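Data availability (excerpt). All sequences and predicted token strings are deposited with the supplementary files. A representative entry, Transposase (Transposase, is3 family protein), is shown inline so that the format can be inspected without opening the archive.
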Amino acid sequence: MGRRGIRYSLEDKLYYIHLVEQGQTVSGIERQYGVKQAQVNQWVERFQAAGIDGLKRRKVRQYSSELKQKVVDLYLAGNTSYSQLAKQFDISNPGVIYQWVNLYTSGKSLKTTGRSKTMNTGRKTTQKERIEIAQWAIANSLDYNAAVQQFQVSYGQVYAWVKKFRRGGPEALQDRRGKDKSGKPQLTEAEKQELKVKALEARIAYLSKENEVLKKMKELERKDAPQRLNIAQSKRSPKKP
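Structure token line:
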């Protein structure tokens, strides 16, 4: 089922919910359609809680720095997940919380912001660019918004290119005439090799960033361990008469 516009329509959401109700797994939906499992689970939960009204688009919400700090502190304290916190605080996407945690553990400010704007209009691209962008989005766990910012194209373009690339490979990203608007009929071997290297570099950079976040979180946990131990010991100590 294709996607219209730059966001999922109500029809799209109901379609994926129907697939789940028919017994298809969310992991299977992600593999086939490129929709993240957390997103499908969120739609199912909202539909079960409020019906169709729960699936309608919400107004852009501003998140205060105080709320961000509270959510980040709860996550770093453990015993919860991005999805649980997103549901608890009515946050549009668990990935938003991941970004807050990443900013905080990197020593950056949690300023009051709304959801980031995406480009509504696309731009002309060559087949090589489309392949590079699709590979980059896949390497970064289908982070379409990040790809929009990285390459200055529209959300709809990225989504469509990733879908075509996963179905038909590089050849699927040629234009309708079978060649790029630049006049090149096909990619050279050097260009193909260059794209493979870029895809690998993008994945390595993504995994490196993920690993750095985990390291900083473990470091925070290590620093907090003595304090937690003292609190636990004080609770176990018998009170003086």
